[in-house]
Amino acid sequence: MSERKAWQELELGVELPAATSLGYKTGGWRVLRPVWNASECTHCMICVSYCPDMAIPVTKSEEGVAGKGGRMFKGIVRLETNLDYCKGCGICAHECPTKCISIIREEEAEQAACKL
Amino acid sequence: MPTLQEIALKTDGVDARIVSGHRMCSGCGIGPLIKTVLAASDKPVIVISATGCLEVVTTIYPFTAWNTPWMHVTFENAASVASGVEAAYKALKRRGKIDGDVNILAVGGDGGTYDIGFQALSGALERRHKFMYLVYDNEGYMNTGNQRSGATPFGASTTTVPAGKVSFGKPQWRKNLVEIAAAHRIPYVGQAAVHNTLDLYKKAQKGFNADGPAVLAVLQPCTTNWSFDPALTMQYSKLAVETNFWPLYEIENGFVHISTKPSNRKPIEEFLKGQTRFRHLFKPGNEHVIVEMQKMIDDEWARLLKLEESGIQF
Ligand SMILES: Cc1ncc(C[n+]2csc(CCOP(=O)(O)OP(=O)(O)O)c2C)c(N)n1
Ligand code: SF4
Ligand code: SF4
Ligand code: SF4
Ligand SMILES: [Mg+2]
């Protein structure tokens, strides 16, 4: 029989540092790739709030970024999709009200990149 | 109420409480659901997670997607552990060992809530701990491959009630967890869906700020076990609401309030079609199942309208 311990003497469970999954790149799962056309974007944030993988970064922009109709969008805006994490579900493209995200096959994207 | 832009900065900005690199299936509805709920807390949040997809996919050792204190407990006791955390926090505050306020969030899947964690949940509500219980409802035990739960809808085929020659799938209607929770006379119970970010955020905020226990039930399409194109997650969530299959409503201090009333409710087939778990319902001989399902949905909706109109307190 092992010795009985008071609860204060029990060992802690595993304690992990926070947010370490950022070191695990889920982009490798992707077969389809969302391609964002920034010049048609209204920065409505629908794609951001729907993205299951938090793969669309947002920032606060004082000077603004150019979007749909050449307008400058100031305040909270989205940035280029982070392909390290995007799994290519296609929700963003399906739900974008201005249809400014298109979906291409990952091989097409890679072939296009090789030609450059 | 913040704008979608302000919410996006909280869910996906540098201080996000849950981050990328988790291993949910592509297109899983849990991602947007949990990030929106976490963002709705204006205080630090302590999360207690029952076993299920959310827990499994966010904490595959040695990784964690949580950027807020988080604890994994067994399948059945998320609400009990949340009770203990709340009591401990109060005790430490009383002794001056800790400062400030926190929100405590217990999270479970429908299996972990409607079935196996139900007793723990009821006890915690009855003891009136100040915490919010969130159930992400994908209508089955999905982490283990689609077994039937108390939340699985009538007519759905699962591995434990498979549809076939003698069975049309689950023969019972689902449990009404929202009303059961309200019967505990708690200050806040809400029912939301993942596609309606603003409504979900608002309900989560009310739950966190309630003066006592709160329960939030959110429908979460499961791309893998409902088996549809992952791009359609939000469309299925929307159809569940537009068909009155999953009404958006809340019970605040006992009073029912319906959040949105579809002006022209869509026939239930619109929600069912394209999902493998309902595929058999479109085969000859099973027409009666859809008719029965439609009738139950319409009856339930009429009942909900009456509850709201009557102004009778739960
Ligand atoms: C007591 C116990 N029984 C069974 C299991 C195996 N198990 C792990 S996750 C899971 C399914 C959970 O279903 P639900 O709560 O609906 O969450 P979901 O997986 O759908 O997210 C099961 C059965 C377990 N971990 N503990
Ligand atoms: S949904 Fe479309 S328009 Fe809106 S922010 Fe995303 S890309 Fe831009
Ligand atoms: S395809 Fe899916 S994972 Fe990739 S950015 Fe769009 S919503 Fe996010
Ligand atoms: S099985 Fe379903 S609920 Fe679980 S991670 Fe996959 S899509 Fe999400
Ligand atoms: Mg489930």
TrEMBL record, chain A:
SUPFAM superfamilies, A to Z: 4Fe-4S ferredoxins
Protein keywords: 4Fe-4S, Iron, Iron-sulfur, Metal-binding, Repeat
Gene3D superfamilies assigned to the protein according to its UniProt record, in alphabetical order: 3.30.70.20, 3.30.70.3270
Phylogenetic lineage: Bacteria, Pseudomonadati, Caldisericota/Cryosericota group, Candidatus Cryosericota, Candidatus Cryosericia
Cofactor(s) required for function per UniProt: [4Fe-4S] cluster
Membrane-spanning parts: none
The organism of origin for this protein: Candidatus Cryosericum septentrionale
Protein name: 4Fe-4S dicluster domain-containing protein
A UniProt-annotated Pfam family: Fer4_7
Superkingdom to which the source organism belongs: Bacteria
MF (Gene Ontology): 4 iron, 4 sulfur cluster binding; metal ion binding; oxidoreductase activity, acting on the aldehyde or oxo group of donors, iron-sulfur protein as acceptor
Domain 4Fe-4S ferredoxin-type: residue ranges: 32-61, 77-106
InterPro entries reported for this sequence: 4Fe4S_Fe-S-bd, 4Fe4S_Fe_S_CS, PorD_KorD
From TrEMBL, chain B:
Gene3D superfamilies: 3.40.50.970
Keywords from the UniProt entry: Oxidoreductase, Pyruvate
Domain of life: Bacteria
Coiled coil: none
Record GO terms (molecular function): oxidoreductase activity; thiamine pyrophosphate binding
Domain Thiamine pyrophosphate enzyme TPP-binding: 51-218
InterPro entries assigned to the protein according to its UniProt record, in alphabetical order: PorB-like, THDP-binding, TPP_enzyme_TPP-bd
GO BP annotation list: small molecule metabolic process
Protein name (record): Pyruvate ferredoxin oxidoreductase
Segments crossing the lipid bilayer: none
